[in-house]
Amino acid sequence: MKLSSKWRSPSNIALVKYWGKHANQIPANPSLSFTLKECYTETEVTLSPKKSDTEFDFEVQLDEKLEESFKPKIEKFFKAIVHEAGFLKEYHISIKTNNSFPHSSGIASSASGMSALALCLLSLKNQITGDEPKDFLQKASEWSRLGSGSASRSVYGGLVQWGKSANNPVSSDQFATPFQGKTHEIFKDFKDYVLLVEVGSKSVSSTAGHGLMNNHPFAEKRFEQAHENLSKLETILENGDLEAFGNLVESEALTLHAMMMTSQPYFILMKPNTVKIIDLVWQFRKETSTPLYFTLDAGANVHLLFPASAETQVENFVERELRPYLKDGRYIKDCVGEGAVEINN
Ligand code: DP6
């Protein structure tokens, strides 16, 4: 009997950033993100009789072509979960994956990719053992975390927290949980336009960047600040204060990049056009009072965050003023989404 499982899992954008970790993918501070809708990975994993006696006999295809470069991170992930997924050693594992966003668009595919893979593997484990864990998504989030920290948040929709925080008794460093606070209506259909500034792979990977937070001169202060910002954001998300939201989120983005610039060795992932766009966003906001804010992930692309009611103004602004600064004029119109879904063929 052929065993297979297929999942679609989205990317997410952090408002309070995860940057720095301990052994075993334990985050140095809690983070909170919006799960996205249009940027996702679809992955199908099929198990068949083992073809070689290597520890893990597997192949990975991206867009129907073998992708050797993905194998080391996946093998590391298998090693991290094999004590709970012994079947990984007993089958040939075929992984077929594709992303909704353009290949090497600079959009981090590890959150969507690792969560899609973790969900497939947990479904397969259940097919083999015949039992369903009490909380499937919680376990899937825990496995996703072991593949890539930010992936832990992608299994759930809406606002998602990963990492223990004082105000939230269900929060955990082991897995993400849906945001427990009250959420003002305005945040329920928030938009995120992903502006593609730089395509291709980054000069420093996130994993290497996290490592540079060990012995970083400002690390302790930064971890403390992330806790404070999360607590402030809980209030903002409840009362719908967009100005306070934008202020906090933009500060988080710039702090993340400031940590990179003050690491040893130091590095810069922003590009001249990243800074140009930020400047134009600030100018536009000042002139029009449109509630438009930016955030950044670990790369040069800019995420524009705004309530759905401002979409027409923002779209005109992007088309008119920002497009010249985008790689091939490209951007993705995304919004808050519902989390991962299983795909039944
Ligand atoms: C800047 O989750 O990609 O996007 O755990 O090493 O795979 P690994 O790192 P990753 O780091 C994401 C960092 C970030 C902030 C965030 O998503 O919270």
Walkthrough of the structure:
- This protein is α+β, with helices and mostly antiparallel strands and 345 residues long.
- The chain folds into two domains: 3-181, Ribosomal Protein S5, domain 2; 188-335, GHMP kinase, C-terminal domain (Alpha-Beta Plaits), CATH 3.30.70.
- Helix content is 34%, strand content 24%.
- The chain has eight helices and 14 strands.
- The strands form three sheets. Strands 1, 4, 5, 6, 7, 8, 9 and 14 form an eight-stranded mixed β-sheet that branches. Strands 11-12-10-13 form a four-stranded antiparallel β-sheet. Strands 2-3 form a two-stranded antiparallel ribbon.
- Strand 2 (21-22) and strand 3 (26-27) form a beta hairpin.
- Helix 2 (110-129) crosses helix 3 (136-147) and helix 5 runs antiparallel to helix 6 (242-261).
- It is globular.
- The two termini are 16 Å apart.
- The model has no long low-confidence stretch (mean pLDDT 95).
- The structure holds ligand DP6.
Care to give the gist of this entry?
The protein has 345 residues and is an alpha+beta fold. It has 2 domains: 3-181, Ribosomal Protein S5, domain 2 (2-Layer Sandwich); 188-335, GHMP kinase, C-terminal domain (Alpha-Beta Plaits). The protein has helices at residues 71-81, 110-129, 136-147, 206-211, 219-239, 242-261, 272-288, 311-322, and strands at 3-16, 21-22, 26-27, 31-49, 57-62, 65-66, 91-99, 159-162, 176-178, 191-195, 293-296, 302-306, 331-335, 341-342.
